[in-house]
Amino acid sequence: MNIVGIIGAGTMGVGIAQVAATAGCKVVLFDANAPQIDKALSGLEKTLEKLAEKGKISREKASEIRNNIVKGEALQDLKDSDLVIEAIIENKEIKTKVFTELETYVSESCIIGSNTSSISITSLGAELKKPERFIGIHFFNPAPLMPLVEVIPSLLTEKTLAEKLYNLMKEWGKTPVIAKDIPGFIVNRIARPYYGEALRIVEENIAKPEQVDEAMKTLGNFKMGPFELMDLIGVDVNFAVTTTVYKDYFYDPKYKPSLLQQRMSEAKLHGRKTGKGFYDYSENAVKPEAQKNEALYQQIFLRIISMLINEAVEAKRLGVANDEDIELAMQKGVNYPKGLLEWGQEIGYSKISETLQSLYEEYQEERYRQSPLLRKI
Asked: β-pairing, 134-139 with 148-153?
């Protein structure tokens, strides 16, 4: 792939552009909001400067990366691309409109990809004249640092394309996995309970956000607790992904969004980007100290980890990806300290099963139903 077109000059778009340019590709970066491209490229120059200062890359490499990226004035400027990756707003109608226009400019052999994190690849590609050239290429934020890329063929994607993109992502220095086109793909499907169950625990006044975070970090060795992570991702973004997955699974109670998270989104308490979320990020704010309670921490950890392991086992049962890719995806995509299937073996699948059975009996909710495979392994 010599020429790569990127649509969308937000954080993800410019991050993917940096990855492609670092791999030696010529990149055309386009955004419908032209000033956003200048802003993104100016930010990239600062990033490259810092990397050169720290000795992570040479000054020559920094200027090579920057020179590999040019500004697209119009969508038509992507016409010579071998591959185009879209990284715009998570809205199916807007994305589809862009793809159908793009298809009128690019060559027959150009591959069109979407960086969507939760919209069906099949539904996005179905509107194209050549849906067989369309595929999901889902990077994780920040794209230059996070190794994982989910490659998602649709029902209409040409059979060899996933492997071709898998190999290309390896050439770009990434860790690719191939996923089925199901809501949330691998990571956003399996990771839902990390947020959902944490929110449930706080909504029910069982624990405070800082206690949940502390429990997951101390007992699970997670780098960030669920509430810290939601604040980093954006409470609104996390809520939007949960809502999409819930809707796309025909309102399966397992993925039911949180009212607390909805209210926080409505109040624009989006986390770090707005200065306040579950925690306060203003200049002199003091982070609340977690009130330690070992028994409570054990309860929190076991409840959340059981839900996560159950989700990984169900993904295995449904063939969402192979075992190795399920384990890789969670470690490389969301920095989990170990693979969930391995974790299930360590804790004991029977203990996970008992925990879920106990929650099911307590709440009488389908949310806590077990994967049929969990009872057998």
From this structure: antiparallel
Query: Is the CB of residue 275 less than 8 Å from the CB of residue 269?
Result: no
Q: Is 29 helix (H, G, I), strand (E, B) or coil?
A: strand
What whole-number distance in Å separates Cα of residue 134 and Cα of residue 61? Answer: 32
Largest CA distance in the chain: 63
Asked if residues 310 and 371 have their Cβ atoms less than 8 Å apart, the reply is: yes
Residue 297 region by backbone torsions, left for phi larger than 0, else alpha for psi between -120 and 50, else beta: alpha
Q: How far apart are CA 79 and CA 102, in angstroms?
A: 8
Distance CA 140, CA 148 (A): 7
CA pair distance 298, 289, nearest whole angstrom: 18
- Cis-peptide into 35, omega within 30 deg: no
What is d(CA 326, CA 341) in angstroms, rounded to the nearest whole number? 8
8 A C-beta contact, residue 344 and residue 311: no
User: Phi-psi category of 172—alpha, beta or left, where left has phi over 0 and alpha has psi -120 to 50?
Assistant: alpha
- Nearest one of 63, 65, 56, 73 to 22, comparing CA atoms: 65
Task: Give the Cα separation of 86 and 301 in Å (integer).
Answer: 37
Length of the chain: 377
Q: What is the DSSP string of 69-85?
A: EEE-SSGGGGTT-SEEE
Phi and psi, residue 177, nearest 5°: -135, 150
For residue 141, give the nearest of 289, 317, 272 by alpha carbon.
Answer: 272
Model pTM above 0.90: yes
Report the relative pairing of strands 26-30 and 3-7 from DSSP bridges: parallel
| Distance in angstroms (rounded) separating the CA atoms of residues 293 and 307 | 21
List, for residues 306-332, the tens digit of each pLDDT value.
999 999 999 999 999 999 999 999 999
CB 263 within 8 A of CB 277: no
Q: Is 95 helix (H, G, I), strand (E, B) or coil?
A: helix
State pLDDT tens for residues 74-91. Answer: 999 999 999 999 999 989
- Where do we find the tokens 């394309």? 161
Task: Supply the residues annotated as catalytic.
Answer: 117, 138, 150, 188
